[in-house]
């Protein structure tokens, strides 16, 4: 375009957020973005990697502000040059992503096969094509019908095609509430999305409604939503819900709800908490039942009771390894009263569990000792593990791998290339899966696995054993464990947040760690009898895709 390209500044909640692939000019950062890649990257990070919902709020704002006509920018959830959304994201996140591009400004593009929920990039839908199974094109499939309904919703409501957009809120501490409003003349639509894997409370949401105004749910069905006596919305939004509301002319009489005032007397300050903290306060209804809500998680709310004088006290736990940013509120269900939101930080440096294992040197040649790595010039000893260390406290675990070599010649987001690490976790007393998906192997020592994590230089995602098999990875969890590398020390760090993964305790677990490499789209590289530039060699195609491995038992 004859102009110098510079990176545009993305949303950075902790100074760590990076959105690759979005470049523009200093004067007009979006004019060189002919496709909606900025929204694509953020959409994946929030909906399939558990990043804060506020990042999508930020990106939608920028989509409106930086594009001369945001309604004509092509938007998409995947295409022929990217990994399929479903290769890392779950079905609920997939449905949310589709709903978002059909209800936000832009021209929604659907890549062939997305409507059949194909997991592989460029996979054919018809027999005889690349990676094709028997014909998979089915106009009655759930995804096809969803896209059909979304297209009909958009075609029948001009507000989604040409309306202005106003972002009302986005959760800043992690997955949670995202709300935006579309307006075209006298028509409007309100989109509420819960990006979290738990129910959340929507309390006193100001969406510009009249007292008692009725809004119809025009996507996925459901009861009408009625504003309270102040015109605000109060509701519980289920896990991964998408509610599209159309405010109508109807107004119903709303009885004034009883109210009470929940106040803090003792709260976290600006200092980082390093141990449990005693919250305390008052409510002007003695003996009422209260709930402690952390990060909006209604499913894990802790119930307690105010005393006869209206005073209350409860412990705010600080036990999870690492530094975290959270928010806490106290809720009184009987009167629909909610305290102010208090954000706080915690830091736990000392682990409760530490384990270190040294691997055999120079053994990254597969289970037979005869495997040959890819022959291209940048392929070296990146798959060779020298040691592994584990630190865990509370619900969090850190895994650090020391490698024979760490390279970053391809400028990977996570700091290392020519390597894909797959970690399988077995919990005591579990009845998980034995087969390791796409690896042509099983768990060693008769173990089964319950949780898996795939981490490469460009992607990180987790899945469970539910529905897993030799050629199926199981249910995607919509969580991206944090992955980073230090080239100088030849280390790769993987950090697992148990609250997002559904893990309360790592004691007694066993980790099976394997190394290999990926294609650009995120599939395990092929293995052939003869090595080639971009394939592994030295064994048949159905042999285990494991160059090096480690088995680590975590102490009780």
Explain briefly what this protein structure is.
This protein is mostly beta strands. The protein has helices at residues 37-47, 54-66, 91-103, 142-155, 158-162, 498-501, and strands spanning 6-7, 23-24, 74-75, 107-108, 164-170, 177-184, 187-194, 200-206, 213-217, 225-226, 232-237, 242-251, 262-266, 277-283, 289-294, 302-305, 311-316, 322-332, 337-338, 342-348, 353-358, 385-393, 396-403, 420-426, 435-436, 441-442, 451-456, 460-464, 482-486, 491-497, 510-516, 527-528, 536-537, 548-553.
Give structural notes.
- This protein is mainly beta.
- The chain contains six helices and 34 strands.
- The protein has helices at 37-47, 54-66, 91-103, 142-155, 158-162, 498-501; strands spanning 6-7, 23-24, 74-75, 107-108, 164-170, 177-184, 187-194, 200-206, 213-217, 225-226, 232-237, 242-251, 262-266, 277-283, 289-294, 302-305, 311-316, 322-332, 337-338, 342-348, 353-358, 385-393, 396-403, 420-426, 435-436, 441-442, 451-456, 460-464, 482-486, 491-497, 510-516, 527-528, 536-537, 548-553.
- Strands 5-6-7-12-9-10 form a six-stranded antiparallel sheet. Strands 15, 16, 18, 19 and 20 form a five-stranded antiparallel sheet that branches.
- A hairpin with a 6-residue loop joins strand 5 and strand 6 (177-184).
- The longest helix is centred in the N-terminal third of the chain and has 14 residues, at 142-155.
- The protein is globular.
- 40% of the residues are buried.
- Mean pLDDT is 92; it is low at 1-32.
